[in-house]
Amino acid sequence: MFDPISSFLGGLLAIIYQVVPNVGLAIIALTVLVNIALFPLTLKQTRSMKAMQEIQPLVKDLQKQHKDDRQKLNEEMVALYKEKGVNPAAGCLPMIVQLPIWFALFSLLRSFRGDDPTRFLTADSSLGDAIVAGDTRFLGMDLVVSPNEAVQDGITTAIPYLLLVVFIIVTGYYQQAQLTKRREKDGSAANDTPQAKQMQTFTKVLPVVFGFISYSLLAGVD
User: Fold this and answer.
1) Residues 147 and 115 in one domain
2) pTM of the complete model
3) Does residue 182 share a domain with residue 106?
4) Along the chain (222 residues), what's the average pLDDT of each consecutive run of 10 residues?
């Protein structure tokens, strides 16, 4: 399903590898380029989320006024969104567009350890030769090995992989802390609704969830 996108990313990765002949650095460079390309969508999503946060006090007022009339509440909500120029679905659309690209990137990197490790790469590329030769090590890790697999080879071998998992978790909490500070600064953090409390609980455990997921993913994907 994502093969055409994976092939495009594979061709781009092969070009990067010719400039930076290191698989790990080439993957990092590709990820940076993908993030730059997706930045307009990410910015649009961020602005949409901020706009929704700014009108939350008005939404709460409407919910109190029409708590016994669901139809009236929906009508007033639609009118409010129209007045403020806010589209609740606008924040989801960029994410939907981005997902196939990230799935394709994951598929590309996962293919490096498959039966045909060069299936998404251009013919006779130097990157393909490196993948076939097993030249996929970076910062003490084999990028086509997961932390879970590395642990089975001994704790000494697994240390770089486990540090990567810890880094992912710590980075997740750091990003949350920065986001919380930003919300407190603009006053959008003050929300005591049950939904808000559930979301706060969810975001607190999310970095750990990502850590568990990364434990099973290839180091190159992490």
Assistant:
1) no
2) 0.69
3) no
4) 88 92 91 87 78 82 84 86 78 73 85 82 82 84 85 86 90 79 59 58 79 80 64
